[in-house]
Amino acid sequence: MKIYETHTAPSPRRVRIFLAEKNIPMEYVQVDIAKGENLSAQMRAKNPMVKIPILELDDGTCISETHSICRYFEEVQPEPPLLGRTALEKAQIDMWQRFVELHLFMQVGMCFQHTTGYFKDRMNPINEYGVEAGKQAQSFLAVLEERLATHTYIAGDHFSVADITAVCAIDFARVVKIKVLDEQIHIKRWYALVNERPSMQA
Prior knowledge:
This protein has seven helices and four strands. A four-stranded mixed β-sheet has the order 2-1-3-4, with helices on one face. It is of the alpha+beta class.
C-alpha cells in the first residue's frame, strides 16, 4: 500500500495528518506536479482526473480524492474516530467538512491557481476569478470565527477531519496572503490548540 503525493501540496497534507492521528504507517511516493509528473499516462491510469493524492492498495486498486481516502481509512480503522461516532455526529462533521472544503480550502486553491499562474502550462488562469476566490475565502474566516466562539473545535467538542481541512487551508492561504485577522481571536485560540497535536508535523 502506498500514497502518491507532493509533500508541499495542501491536499496530501490532509491525508498525512489523518493517518498520523490514527497512527497508520504509510509509504509515500513523491510526484512532481510542477513538472507535470501527475499528467503521465501511468498516473492517469491510477486517477483519470490526474490529481494527487492517490492511494494505491496492495492489489492495485486506486482511490483518489482526499476525503475518499480518509473515509477508507476511517472504515478500516475506526479509532480514533475523525468522521464521527453517532449518526448526528457524523452528519455534523460531514456538514462542517463540506463547508470548510467548499468555502475555504477550495477558494484558497482557486486563488492560488488563478492569481499565481503556477499551472499556466495546463490551464487558463483568470486573475479576476482568483482574486474573487481569495475574497470568498477571507469572508469564510468570519463564519469560522463565529462558530469557534462557542465550540472547541469546528464540528463540535472533538477534533475531526473538518479541523484538518481548515488548518491545511489556513496554512496554505499564507502563500496568497490570506491570513487570520488579529481580531479573530477564536480562530487563533483554535489554531494554537490544534497545532499542539503531533500529527500537525506530518
